[in-house]
TrEMBL record:
Residues 153-163 have a biased composition (Basic and acidic residues). Keywords: Acyltransferase, Transferase. Residues 7-168 form the N-acetyltransferase domain. It holds the Pfam family Acetyltransf_1. It comes from Cellulomonas avistercoris. Residues 153-173 are annotated as: Disordered. SUPFAM superfamilies: Acyl-CoA N-acyltransferases (Nat). It comes from the Bacteria. This is GNAT family N-acetyltransferase. The keyword Lipoprotein does not apply. Gene3D superfamilies: 3.40.630.30.
Length: 173
């Protein structure tokens, strides 16, 4: 956790689109199997797309002491989900700083952001074979729902929905 204390979790807006783009593209390069999108697809996005993405989601970046981005998470209202649920997307931490509390801090920001938006729950989908992500989410208070779906971009893999309540007692800390 020593680096997590030196890392600042900062909510960003559309004027931070270049930082978000750079972190997201790095995430897709280094952890392509963990996301529902692809590097080739997102490399084609114009500035207007990145700005729109930041207008329609709540996003945080993790910045180290020198201001270098080390992680990212976004929170969205997922189509078809309950009105009082917010959905975690794009969680990623740079490989060189993993297992130092940054993922936990980003998730905590997302859960608190959901509570600030009057969401009763925060949910996410995780691919079955991503054991390190499952471990992080469970330790951060997310529980399995049993809801499963085929991964849209790879029908040979499945993912499960996890949920965490934002009510008092459900927040970390």
């Amino acid at each position: 956790m020593r680096h997590a204390e030196a890392v600042q979790i900062r909510r960003v807006d559309e004027d931070d689109w270049q930082t978000v783009r750079d972190v997201r593209l790095r995430a897709l390069r280094e952890s392509s199997d963990a996301f529902g999108s692809s590097l080739a697809r997102e490399e084609r996005f114009a500035e207007s797309h990145w700005r729109m993405r930041l207008r329609t989601s709540t996003t945080w970046v993790a910045l180290d002491g020198s201001g270098e981005p080390r992680g990212l998470v976004s929170l969205v209202q997922e189509p078809g989900s309950p009105e009082d649920d917010r959905h975690v997307v794009s969680l990623w931490v740079a490989p060189e700083v993993r297992r130092q509390g940054i993922g936990w801090s980003l998730l905590d920001a997302a859960v608190r952001g959901g509570a600030d938006q009057d969401a009763a729950t925060v949910s996410l989908w995780v691919v079955d074979d991503n054991a390190s992500a499952v471990d992080l989410y469970v330790r951060a208070g997310f529980t399995r729902t049993g809801e499963r779906q085929v991964l849209p971009r790879d029908p040979d893999r499945t993912e499960e929905r996890y949920v965490r309540h934002t009510a008092p007692g459900g927040l970390a800390g």
